[in-house]
Specification:
The chain is α+β, with helices and mostly antiparallel strands. Helices cover 50% and strands 15% of the residues. It is built from 47 helices and 36 strands.
């Protein structure tokens, strides 16, 4: 097998490294020793087959070696470092890239497929050869798919057809694409596949005769015109025939290109010359001509396609191309790969892969896995139409695309501001279907109100649809804020409060922070959206209101305890011991009733609040001085209002049943409300007046959805509720006073749980059959007295059919809850992302990369200058990850002395060293188990500590200092550095193997000087923050905003925040002016800016000065400069300092 492989490679690359390929071949064979495929063959056959496929594609040595070893990192004990040491970093990275496409496990097949596709795109973006190896791997797997189970065959074939074949097409690998499609069809539609194969076989002899006649005639003509070339018949893939027959409803005889000729010539001019020869001999079908030489496909494909009619009436297709075009058509991107040593690999073909860059940008915008995979299939598998921009750029779109699709393909802003379109110079409706060759011009208006929701029904491409939805989502946020504010204000008005007294910004901000919102507007948006309830806000506002306007707690305690009275009770029926004329209320948290043990709590401004003694709120009271003894009176004429919630199935007559129960209980109904729950329940809240807790117990038993049946210790029936009658259909009068033995004997039911419970003296459950034939589930529970005698048996009764129904509805409710949970998590992530302010396109892409990678436990390296927000982004990754329920841990490696680094990271055992804590100490790796650890300034670690850190990352185990037992940890590592780590590796100050471990995903954060559009928004954000913090209302002048745009901001975001706080604190007026900017900034900026403005002033006034004498002109110039600066708002002392003159000179000159 090795000789065959080497022979194939030498045929196109005589300088191949035979020794290295042989070494890789033998190493792969050794690693896979003892492993077998489903077919029973040695596993080694597979990597050799993949290498042969890559050699067929004329790939370079590194790719073929990586193809040989592509499964080693995944299926054997060999590490990345070992492979890198043996075969070099380039090959190890290729193998690692292929391996990473397989390692992650997913909750659903849809999610797995979408995220694998995303990973492939990322891999392609870094090195296109990774995906070529992966496609070769899939090609051999599908060639041997017959050895897998039927379900696996269908799964793999479908995935190949939907993902790998389109990618092969986009990479221009037509031969591979055809084989992938045909083999997939063989397993997905075996009957159709073999039927087509038989039909093609039957027509072969007839077709070959026609082709040979045409080839002979073309050969003669080419010789007459001295054109050298190769002519052959072109085979038609079975899948392309299938698509035309079954997807376009064509018959087998209607497929023109079954008979096809391919002509390959040296130059492009020869292509068009041959086209003229062919047209002179046979009649072309006009609508079937396509010039892919002038307008290449996105996958680099170039050729002339034409369909003609022969003199005998047969329809055939002709393709004309150059040899270079043919090589590209057959092998795609692989045809452009430079395998020769020393050749620069950044060739021009990279610039042609615009579709890959577009797909990379687009996949970051789409969060939903289903939407992404569906959109990929729609937009990248469907037929295409090629149109032109007014400047002549070729834009490829999905077939059936509209001008709106075109607009969004050009740029999101063009789509959002689109108001009309011209096609070939004519204004057309926005639902116009574009055709090949159209010149499309989009009419925009910057004042446009944005896209219409109707566009979602018009557009064809998923990319356009996604961008339109994103626009509406952003717009609706503002609407939600307005709606949320209105809802809160209406509720405040309903409760009788005054806006200005209760809706204080400071209170609202504190509540927003407690609810995990960064701003009040975010909280309003959540209210408007419905993700939080007003009940979460109103009680907190009331607390603030009470604390602000009422007397202090100590004042109340002293006042209440100093009051004495002989009267012991009040109208509430509660005695507050030793106190009279005090307001008493019953706590809503526990709703105490006569018969409960109670205690009083001294409130702020609301007198005494009475609680149950076992109330959780009372148990948590820290200031026990606020508790006071209370007790019930003996009055029998007092009624107590109590609210009862009755939850039942949402069915006809539910409210009537509740009303009937209340009527039967002879209780006074004070209020009633009813609503339908989301989980198909009917919730009735009633307020009734009762005298004691016994009446409440009776009401609850009667309201129970379960049937309740009570007998005495001798099995005589003494009570049953209304639900029992409803479930069984047996009237209460037929059961009360009857003994269970008699009822069983009379056939009312087949057996009794009461009798069994009395006999066995324990709780029992039986399936009871009634006289009517109905089955019910009954549970009998014996009640014992102090002498251990059974005095009652309480039986709980459930309808079996209702139980089955409830079980089904419970399952549906759980599914719905899970759905809401995922939606809430998504909203939470979107809100968190909005807190990082940026309008910079590159930074937006970085945020999207963070969002995409956060939920995976992969290592992330954050690089950037100090103050760029690395710590904030690390916390954002943690919050968006599946570990966000656990605490976020961070360590700044540069702030720890060398002697303490290991103890902080790994901890130590007791007595490990002098000064160690007697109990020992846990390190951060132990504390951060199942959480996220952020190692800031990791480049400051010593090489020795780096080695120990690498060991933990590789094994997930570590030893405490002085310990002998390994501790296992599951930590997600995020690292950061403002140093160039790759430069430190060259200097021997940082381990290369550790760098590869932490640098799986590299995120470089732009300094603020490279994203100037973010300076003003950040200034506004920090101004608002410090205004709220210091209860101020400062504003920044336009001159300050303008001036600071030119500052370099060496301290980045941190410096902006510090500067804003400085200006807010030192400014004496409401407006922050340039006088409030620190001198170290103004010295760098003002001179530059003002000198340029003075130069302009000099230029404008030159003609005036030219008419004066030198003395007068000098005097006038001095006055103009001083007046200009004074009008700009600078003080006299500031102007004097800028011009290096005495303040008196400024005063004298300015007064003139």
């Amino acid at each position: 097998m090795l000789d065959e492989l080497l022979s194939k490679i030498k045929s196109y690359n005589p300088n191949t490294d035979v020794e290295k390929i042989t070494k890789a071949y033998n190493f792969t064979k050794e690693c896979h020793e003892g492993q077998f495929r489903n077919s029973g063959e040695p596993y080694f056959i597979h990597p050799v087959a993949v290498a042969n496929i890559l050699a067929d594609l004329y790939m370079d040595d590194a790719t073929i070696i990586a193809g040989l070893m592509h499964d080693i990192l995944e299926d054997t004990e060999v590490t990345f470092e070992e492979m890198s040491g043996m075969f070099g970093e380039e090959i190890a990275n290729l193998v690692d890239g292929v391996t990473k496409l397989k390692k992650i496990k997913y909750q659903s097949k849809q999610e797995s497929q979408a995220d694998n596709l995303r990973k492939m795109l990322l891999a392609m973006n870094s090195d296109i050869r990774v995906i070529i190896i992966k496609i070769a791997d899939r090609l051999h797997n599908i060639r041997t798919l017959e050895y897998m189970k039927k379900a696996k065959q269908l799964e793999k074939a479908k995935e190949t057809l939907e993902i790998y074949a389109p990618l092969a097409y986009r990479l221009g690998m037509s031969n591979v694409k055809w084989e992938l499609e045909d083999l997939s069809l063989r397993y997905l539609e075996p009957e159709i596949y073999y039927d087509l194969a038989e039909r093609v076989k039957k027509k072969r002899s007839e077709r070959e005769k026609i082709i040979n006649d045409i080839i002979e005639e073309i050969s003669i003509s080419l010789k007459e015109h001295n054109i050298q070339g190769e002519i052959s018949g072109r085979p038609k893939s079975l899948y392309s025939i299938y698509k035309k027959m079954y997807k376009q409803n064509k018959s087998f005889d209607e497929i023109f290109d079954l008979t096809a000729i391919r002509i390959i010539v040296p130059t492009i001019s020869d292509c068009y010359a041959v086209l003229g020869i062919v047209h002179s001999k046979w009649k072309p079908i006009p609508s079937r001509f396509k010039d892919y030489i002038a307008v290449p496909k996105p996958n680099l494909y170039q050729s002339l396609h034409n369909t003609l009619i022969s003199t005998s009436g047969d329809v055939f297709e002709v393709q004309i191309r150059t040899f270079e075009m043919h090589r590209t058509a057959e092998y795609g991107i692989a045809a452009h790969w430079k395998y020769k040593a020393g050749v620069d690999r950044s060739t021009s073909f990279d610039d042609k892969l615009t579709w890959l860059r577009q797909l990379m940008d687009w996949q970051r915008e789409v969060n939903d896995s289903r939407e992404f995979i569906t959109s990929f299939k729609e937009d990248f598998v469907s037929d295409e139409v090629f149109v032109f921009s007014p400047k002549g750029d070729v834009i490829n779109l999905i077939a059936g695309a509209t001008p709106i699709d075109f607009a969004y393909k050009v740029h999101t802003a063009v789509g959002n501001n689109c108001v009309g379109a011209k096609v070939d110079g004519r204004i057309v409706p926005l639902n116009y279907k574009l055709k090949n060759g159209n010149i499309v011009e989009i009419l925009t208006n910057p004042n446009s109100s944005g896209p219409s929701k109707d566009w979602l029904k018009i557009v064809k491409s998923s990319q356009a649809r996604t961008k339109i939805k994103q626009w509406f989502k952003k717009e609706n946020k503002a609407l939600n804020i307005v709606q949320g504010r209105d809802m809160l204000e209406k509720e405040i008005r309903r409760l009788g409060f005054t806006y200005s007294k209760i809706l204080k910004e400071d209170w609202l901000l504190q509540i927003a922070k407690k609810l995990s919102f960064n701003t009040i507007d975010e909280m309003y948006a959540a209210i408007g959206f419905g993700s939080i309830n007003l009940k979460q806000i109103i009680p907190r506002l009331k607390e603030f209101y009470s604390d602000y306007y009422q007397e202090s707690a100590d004042d109340i305690i002293n006042r209440v305890k100093s009051e004495k009275s002989g009267s012991k009770y009040n109208s509430k029926g509660v005695i507050v011991k030793g106190i009279d004329n005090i307001e008493v209320s019953f706590a809503k948290c526990c709703n105490p009733l006569p018969g409960d043990e109670i205690i009083g709590y001294i409130t702020k401004g609301r007198g005494i609040s009475v609680h149950n003694c076992d109330c959780a709120n009372i148990k948590n009271v820290t200031n026990r001085d606020r508790l006071i003894a209370v007790e019930w009176t003996n009055s029998k004429n007092l009624f107590y209002k109590v609210e009862v919630a009755i939850i039942s199935l949402d069915q006809v007559g539910a409210l009537a049943d509740v009303a009937h129960i209340i009527s039967e209980s002879k209780l006074n109904l004070v209020g009633i409300t009813a609503k339908t729950g989301k989980d198909k329940t009917f919730i009735t809240n009633i307020i009734v007046e009762i005298k004691n807790i016994d009446e409440l117990f009776k009401l609850i038993v009667e309201s129970s959805y379960d049937g309740i049946y009570v007998t005495d210790g001798n099995a005589n029936t003494i009570f049953l509720n209304q639900s029992y009658e409803n479930i069984t259909g047996i009237n209460k009068k037929d059961l009360i006073g009857k003994n269970m033995k008699t009822l069983v004997k009379n056939g009312v039911f087949n057996e009794s749980s009461s009798l069994v419970a009395i006999k066995e003296r324990k709780k029992v459950t039986i399936n009871q059959k009634l006289k009517s034939g109905k089955n019910i589930l009954v549970t009998g529970t014996p009640v014992f007295d102090e002498n251990n005698n059974i005095i009652y048996v309480v039986t709980n009764v459930r309808d079996m059919k209702e139980l089955e129904k409830l079980e089904k509805e419970l399952f549906e409710a759980k599914e719905l809850t899970e759905k809401y949970k995922k939606e809430i998590e998504k909203i939470k992530r979107d809100i968190y992302n909005e807190n990082f302010i940026t309008s910079n396109i590159k930074m937006e892409k970085i945020l999207q990369l963070i969002k995409d990678s956060a939920r995976f436990d992969t290592s992330i390296l954050l690089q950037g200058e100090t103050g760029t927000g690395k710590t904030f982004l690390a916390k954002m990754i943690h919050e968006l990850s599946n570990r966000n329920k656990n605490e976020f841990f961070e360590i700044n490696c540069s702030s720890l002395p060398e002697g303490l680094v290991e103890s902080e990271l790994f901890g130590y055992e007791k007595g490990a060293f002098t000064g160690a804590l007697a109990s020992g100490k846990k390190g951060v790796f132990e504390l951060a188990n199942n959480s996220t650890l952020f190692l800031d300034e990791i480049s400051e670690l010593s090489l020795e500590t780096q080695a120990k850190l690498l060991k933990v990352l590789e094994t997930g185990k570590f030893l405490r200092i002085g310990g002998e037992k390994f501790i296992t940890t599951n930590v997600r590592i995020i690292t950061a550095s403002n140093a160039n780590i790759e430069e430190l590796i060259k200097q021997g100050k940082f381990r290369k193997d550790l760098f590869y471990r932490i640098n799986v995903i590299n995120i470089t954060i732009l300094p603020i000087r490279e994203r100037k559009e973010d300076i003003s928004p950040l200034m506004i954000k920090f101004l608002k923050f410090y205004n709220q913090k210091y209860n101020l209302d400062k504003k920044i002048s336009e001159e300050v905003f303008e001036l600071l745009q030119d500052y370099k901001w060496p301290g980045n975001i941190r410096e902006i925040r510090n500067l804003i706080e400085h200006m807010v604190v030192v400014s004496k007026d409401e407006e922050i002016t340039m006088e409030n900017i620190p001198s170290h900034i103004t010295n760098k900026l003002i001179k530059k800016n003002e000198i340029s403005k003075m130069e302009l002033l000099c230029t404008c006034c030159f003609q005036i000065y030219a008419k004066m004498g030198l003395k007068d002109a000098t005097e006038q110039f001095q006055k103009d400069v001083i007046n200009y600066l004074m009008e700009k708002g600078y003080s006299k002392s500031k102007v004097a300092k800028m011009l290096n003159v005495n303040p008196s000179t400024v005063t004298r000159k300015f007064q003139k």
